[in-house]
Specification:
It comes from Anser brachyrhynchus (Pink-footed goose). This is Trophoblast glycoprotein. It holds the Pfam family LRRCT. One of its GO terms (biological process) is positive regulation of phosphatidylinositol 3-kinase/protein kinase B signal transduction. Keywords: Leucine-rich repeat, Membrane, Repeat, Signal, Transmembrane, Transmembrane helix. It is a single chain. It is built from nine helices and 13 strands. With 403 residues, the chain is an alpha/beta fold. The protein has two domains: 272 residues, Alpha-Beta Horseshoe (Leucine-rich repeat, LRR (right-handed beta-alpha superhelix)); 72 residues. The strands form two sheets. It has a ten-stranded mixed β-sheet, with no helix packed on it. Strands 4-6-8 form a three-stranded parallel β-sheet. β9, α3 and β10 form a beta-alpha-beta unit. The chain is elongated and about 130 Å long. It starts with 16 loop residues before the first helix and ends with a helix. Bound molecules: 2-acetamido-2-deoxy-beta-D-glucopyranose (9 copies).
Length: 403
């Protein structure tokens, strides 16, 4: 969609007649006459209608030679319904479009339209079928729109030939992200070779999002907030050449992800810079892979962000002795050993207690006797008092049992 060359002629609404007349004053009469004739022709050829015969919508600049139409920073609230049929490069940017309805381009039969730039149009909604019936569309830029909803059927029922899709700073809403994931997974963009998802603040990617992109070559996920790639599958991206993950919050990458990258035959450039690598035991696999892999760009510059005592250390310079990994930190087994230890200690205490009892058995016996005697004396005192005011039969009974 890179605009090649400038748009040479401004063919918007024709200049008002007054301006031309003012410029003429003071010039020779014959030139003035020619201008008058020109103005007359202009009026005859439809000065009053919205569109000139050459065909350029109000508020846009058109160049037939460059096959380009630009409707930039205007007040358009909808896609102009009268785009010239030759248009190959269409820029509608910086307008308050807000929503792209179904069939926004369909009625105009834009058979040549190859590059469509819709960035910065305050788009919140892209409806089903909004981008259908564009048989030549190769590049689409939807960046800088605060998308809240992106229909999985935005390109219509059949597949789209789209090759480049830019969604920079356009997926801050989870709804739009899920819509994109569904759209990609449905296989609507099987020819897509470049996907730009930078600047979106993405934390996690929907599982299986890249599962149906067999032609993808360049994937840009830089400047997001990705914390991990545990659920992201890169399988099936047999053409992938570059993957940009710089400026994210990655702390560690698992063996599964590394193995997938190892298996991608075309992957030659992985951008990893400015992440939040956590240099503990779990990073061993990543370090080992980094040392052997030549896929990572600028791997010498990668440094640990945590823990504090490893901060700033180059990932490539880490060796096992830095990581304290020899003792496996296995909580359940640790707990088990501590329970066994506790049991042994309790058993020992019990045994000592019994031993003390045994050694003191004579003293204890004596002590028990003393207690029994004391009790008996006490009880007899009670009996005595009881006998005084109780039934004689009961007194007999109790004194019998006492003996
Ligand atoms: C689309 O237009 C914006 C604004 O003019 C520009 O920054 C961007 O580079 C264009 N996209 C493409 C793919 O050319
Ligand atoms: C857009 O509309 C505003 C007011 O609605 C007006 O002031 C401004 O001139 C318009 N801009 C263009 C490029 O037409
Ligand atoms: C994808 O590209 C191939 C080869 O360039 C082409 O034949 C096919 O029609 C394209 N797919 C779509 C859906 O346009
Ligand atoms: C990164 O993305 C944020 C939005 O998430 C944006 O404001 C910022 O400008 C981007 N940074 C760069 C360097 O592009
Ligand atoms: C990964 O996927 C599983 C199920 O597929 C889900 O339960 C889990 O929450 C996901 N984890 C992340 C970090 O997305
Ligand atoms: C990761 O893979 C490497 C080699 O492929 C292997 O040596 C290592 O044990 C694996 N790590 C884990 C945690 O499975
Ligand atoms: C990734 O993107 C950053 C800018 O966000 C750029 O500086 C870097 O060169 C890119 N890396 C790759 C491998 O594309
Ligand atoms: C570990 O790395 C340090 C430098 O960071 C080096 O001095 C030391 O010899 C290395 N130890 C082993 C066992 O490789
Ligand atoms: C490794 O463990 C020892 C003892 O637990 C500790 O003193 C040392 O600081 C640890 N080193 C690192 C790099 O974590």
């Amino acid at each position: 969609m890179r605009p090649e060359g400038k748009v040479p002629s401004r063919a918007g609404p024709p200049p008002p007649a007054g301006a031309g007349a003012g410029a003429m004053s003071g010039r020779e009469a014959e030139r003035g006459g020619a201008l008058c004739l020109g103005l007359l022709l202009h009026v005859l050829l439809g000065c009053g209608s919205a569109q000139q015969p050459g065909g350029c919508p109000a508020g846009c600049e058109c160049s037939e030679a460059a096959k380009t139409v630009k409707c930039v920073n205007g007040n358009l609230t909808e896609v102009p319904p009268d785009l010239p049929p030759y248009v190959r490069n269409l820029f509608i940017t910086g307008n308050p479009l807000r929503r792209l309805p179904a069939g926004a381009f369909a009625a105009q039969r834009l058979a040549e339209l190859g590059a469509l730039n819709l960035s910065g149009n305050h788009l919140r909604v892209v409806e089903a079928g909004a981008l259908s019936a564009l048989p030549a569309l190769r590049q689409l830029d939807l960046s800088g729109n605060p998308l809240a909803s992106l229909s999985p059927q935005a390109f219509g029922e059949g597949g789209s030939p789209l090759e480049e899709l830019a969604l920079r700073g356009a997926l801050r809403d989870q709804g739009a992200l899920l819509g994109l994931a569904a759209l990609l997974q449905a296989g609507a963009l099987r020819n897509l070779s470049r996907l730009e998802l930078a600047d979106n603040g993405l934390l996690l990617l929907p599982a299986g999002m890249f599962g149906a992109l067999p032609a993808l070559r360049h994937l840009d996920l830089s400047n997001n907030s990705l914390v991990g790639l545990r659920n992201v599958s890169f399988q099936g991206l047999g053409q992938l050449q570059s993957l940009n993950l710089s400026d994210n919050s990655l702390g560690v990458l698992r063996n599964g992800t590394l193995a997938q990258w190892r298996g991608l035959p075309a992957l030659r450039r992985i951008g990893f810079g400015r992440n939040a690598w956590v240099c503990d035991c779990a990073i061993e696999d990543l370090v080992a892979w980094l040392k052997e892999s030549d896929q990572v760009e600028g791997k010498e510059a990668l440094t640990c962000a945590h823990p504090e005592k490893m901060q700033g250390k180059a990932l490539l310079k880490i060796n096992a002795s830095d990581l304290n990994c020899s003792v496996p930190v296995d909580l359940p087994s640790q707990l088990q050993t501590s329970y066994v230890f506790l049991g042994i200690v309790l058993a020992l205490i019990g045994a000592i207690f019994l031993l003390v009892l045994y050694l003191n058995r004579k003293g204890i016996k004596k002590w028990m006797h003393n207690i029994r005697d004391a009790c008996r004396d006490h009880m007899e005192g009670y009996h005595y008092r009881y006998e005084i005011n109780a039934d004689p039969r009961l007194t007999n009974l109790s004194s019998n049992s006492d003996v």
